[in-house]
Amino acid sequence: MTSDEINNTNKEIDISDFLQLEGIGPAANKEIKKGGYVSILQLAAAMQEDVENSCDISADKAKKYIKAAQEWLDQSGVMNSRVTSGLDDLERREQMQKITTGSSNLDTLLKGGIETQAITEFYGSFGSGKTQLCNMIAINAQLPPEKGGISAKGVIYIDTEGTFRPERIKNICIELGLDYREILSNITRIRTGTLMEFIYRIKTLSNEIERRNAKVIIIDSIISRSRQEKIGRGTLADRQQVLGQLLHRIMRCAEIYNAAVILANQVQANPDTYGDPTKPAGGNVLGHASTYRLSLRRSGKKTVVTMVDSPMGKYDSVDIEITERGIEDFVENRKSAKAKKQGKENKETETSESQEQPQEDSESEHDLVIA
Ligand code: ADP
Ligand code: MG
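Above: inputs. Below: predicted complex with adenosine-5'-diphosphate.
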């Protein structure tokens, strides 16, 4: 079922009415609404402990409400049945929507672009182009399908590092002849300064997706360098468990809302002798959660993108370039638009003046507290 079909079905069936659910009477309806849930989809996607806490009800009740919502979804046809034939699965995959990255090389590596219902992770060191890719996808997702987008009217951009720059998006839009006001107004930037804030935002992600009718969720980055808080009792296993729960929620949102999830991720910066500095942060938990995992490595003007993990199992590399137009295929001796304009008047070649260097809010020490 495509997102359009889901949206169309949603118009016919009122998914905001909990009273349709088996065993939900007016009292239960009130409890669920009091907990901040606004639709059956959202309740079906919620974690039991969240429903328990936000509705202030017992674990059994929470379990019962979620189950009722999930069964309703199965039967109502709003969502695909969970029991599918291989042919159904193939048809579903063929209907999957894809977003262009701006580089046809990278799109080819991704077999057509960034997929909905999947998590695509880009990891690389500081300055390798993760944020630039996130910006580009936030723009391209809004394009119509014939231009490589999915006509997304909602993009959620969780900015854990404070590196979101609307001016950069504006400039790319101008270069591409897009209405930057419209593009920027469809992007909801959520700044999370602390780890607790981040956890809260992920727990309430479905709320935000519903509110914005979001089709794309960008998290830059999943493991922030500047988070200063420690969680749990601080053992690696505890931290991995928290990360695992967050990723589980994110994946459920991707599936239920037919949304594309893009994660930027750091490479391990632990100075300890055992840490491999080219390894992505987040350990095994993140590795298993990502559907596609790609590494970014800057090499002069180009950025080498390598598919490190994919269900297709083919691990090629391609070259892309960060330009005034966002992300493009790497071309030797590319002249920037500015340089081209100036070229006639003065024969000087382009300088790196036009390049924005990444800036970060506050202290960004290599403090990988989750991984
Ligand atoms: P990361 O998020 O991986 O730390 P970024 O996505 O912030 O890295 O990439 C920063 C790099 O992008 C800069 O070093 C610069 O080379 C390049 N860049 C940023 N803006 C432009 C631009 N307008 N034109 C060309 N390159 C740019
Ligand atoms: Mg960045």
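The CA atoms of residues 205 and 253 lie 8 Å apart.
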